[in-house]
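Structure (tokenized):
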């Protein structure tokens, strides 16, 4: 680059010299011989041609370098202008929308502070514009309050005074906040923390409103705090007041305790599973009682009636029953579809002939007649010589580490299923979740409200077969009883596989 510039300067010097020489020659043309002049002109023409050729080569080589330097200079100037523009241009904020005031006095102070900051103290707006904005942000009773004022500059101040006189009285706002606190809707159930959260948020809103008015909370806590506590569910009320002097609480103390309890419940709360199209909840069985309900909903394999297979009157002979089972591809051992008796996982023997390979309704030991079974409710407690017989069965609990042989007690009146901590440790079951649960005895003589572990139990028959999964809450002890063997007539006691119908 420097070499090209040097050559260009040299050419410029030659050009100046030629011009100077020609000028001197023209001045002395009268004294110069004609032949000398002709030679000089010829030499000058050659030199001029050489100079033009050199200049053309220089101009072809210089534009690329000049464009790069110009681009760099333009970029630097652009960066400088961008930096300067960033300093002067502010960030464009989203459009600010003011909330309309509907005449509820407890919301007046919030509305007026926002309107005053955005409109009333804006120097770029005229009085008429401010009045127009004010009327547009009022509705219902508040708009009717100033409906008699015409939209003029002089009426803007009068309209503001009218609104302040009606809604800006601090003593009326205080009474309204306290009245709204006492009118809050109580929460009766603690299973959904969203209702507790709504109650807490409403209480917090009115409490902050009173604080904004510089109202001492001691002046109203003695009335409001007991009223708010009474609106809480019984379990929540007992939890936040246990072992504490709640009679001396102010609003801050109540809100602090309630917030701690609410956050704990929200942390361990599990939403209900979505409902399927048929109205049943998706997911695993919630309780062992669902297994009993499932067995009651099964239909007869022969006539599709709502009764047990062995109680069918429409297809009474064993021969006809086998024909129906074979026609519809049912297993002779369990009467289920999709497999044959040799591939059936059901290992329970017939209750009549004590042989395997066929269902009790297909047994030929008592001829072709109908084998009836009682559809009455199972007897849960039998009183005989001051002894109580419980409906139990044995099964295999499959755990993450190993399997454990357990005894299952069936209680059709229970809403939940339970498992002891001893069984959980033996099977090495992982905790599914934690959930608050209150267990009440008969007559509610004692309530046990704790945060309990929830487990998924996969239970299979001892003799092999299909396993079922239920959800159970962990407790320390279910009941104390003395094991004794009763003499029972063969075939009168249901096995674990028969109790659940499709459980094996």
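Design, position by position:
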């Amino acid at each position: 680059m420097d070499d090209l510039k040097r050559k260009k300067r040299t050419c410029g010097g030659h050009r100046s010299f030629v011009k100077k020489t020609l000028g001197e020659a023209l001045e002395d043309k009268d004294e110069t011989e004609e032949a000398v002049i002709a030679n000089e002109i010829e030499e000058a023409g050659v030199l001029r041609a050489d100079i033009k050729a050199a200049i053309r080569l220089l101009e072809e080589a210089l534009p690329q370098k000049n464009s790069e330097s110009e681009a760099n200079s333009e970029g630097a100037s652009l960066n400088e202008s961008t930096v300067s523009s960033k300093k002067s241009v502010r960030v464009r904020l989203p459009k600010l929308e003011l909330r309309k005031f509907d005449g509820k006095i407890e919301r007046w102070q919030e509305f007026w502070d926002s309107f005053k900051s955005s409109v009333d103290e804006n120097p770029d707006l005229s009085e008429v514009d401010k009045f127009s904005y004010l009327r547009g942000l009022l509705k219902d009773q508040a708009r009717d309050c100033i409906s008699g004022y015409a939209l003029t500059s002089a009426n803007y101040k009068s309209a503001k005074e009218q609104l302040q006189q009606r809604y800006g009285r601090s003593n009326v706002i205080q009474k309204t906040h306290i009245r709204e606190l006492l009118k809050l809707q109580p929460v009766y159930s603690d299973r959904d923390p969203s209702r507790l959260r709504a109650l807490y948020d409403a209480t917090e809103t009115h409490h902050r409103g009173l604080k904004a008015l510089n109202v001492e909370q001691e002046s109203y806590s003695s009335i409001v705090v007991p009223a708010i506590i009474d609106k809480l569910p019984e379990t929540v009320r007992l939890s936040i007041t246990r072992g504490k002097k709640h009679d001396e609480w102010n609003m801050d103390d109540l809100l602090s305790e309630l917030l701690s309890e609410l956050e704990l419940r929200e942390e361990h709360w599990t939403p209900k599973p979505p409902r399927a199209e048929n109205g049943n909840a998706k997911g695993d069985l919630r309780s062992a009682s669902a297994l009993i309900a499932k067995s009651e909903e099964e239909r007869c394999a022969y006539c599709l009636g709502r009764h047990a297979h062995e109680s069918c009157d429409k297809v009474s002979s064993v021969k006809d029953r086998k024909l129906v089972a074979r026609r519809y591809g049912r297993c002779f051992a369990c009467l289920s579809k999709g497999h044959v008796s040799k591939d059936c996982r059901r290992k329970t023997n017939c209750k009549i002939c004590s042989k395997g390979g066929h269902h009790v309704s297909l047994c030929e030991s008592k001829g072709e007649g109908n084998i009836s079974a009682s559809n009455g409710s199972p007897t849960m407690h039998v009183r005989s010589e001051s002894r109580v017989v419980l409906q139990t069965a044995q099964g295999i609990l499959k755990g993450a580490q190993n399997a454990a042989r357990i005894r299952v007690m069936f209680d059709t009146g229970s809403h939940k299923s339970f498992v002891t901590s001893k069984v959980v440790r033996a099977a090495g079951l992982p905790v599914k979740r934690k959930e608050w649960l209150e267990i009440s005895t008969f007559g509610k003589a004692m309530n046990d409200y704790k945060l309990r572990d929830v487990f998924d139990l996969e239970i299979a028959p001892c003799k092999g077969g299909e396993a079922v999964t239920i959800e159970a809450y962990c407790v320390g002890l279910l009941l104390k009883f003395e094991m004794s063997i009763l003499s029972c007539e063969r075939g009168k006691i249901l096995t674990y596989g028969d109790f659940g119908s499709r459980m094996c």
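Reviewer-requested clarification: The first strand starts at residue 383 and ends at 384. The chain has a mean pLDDT of 73.
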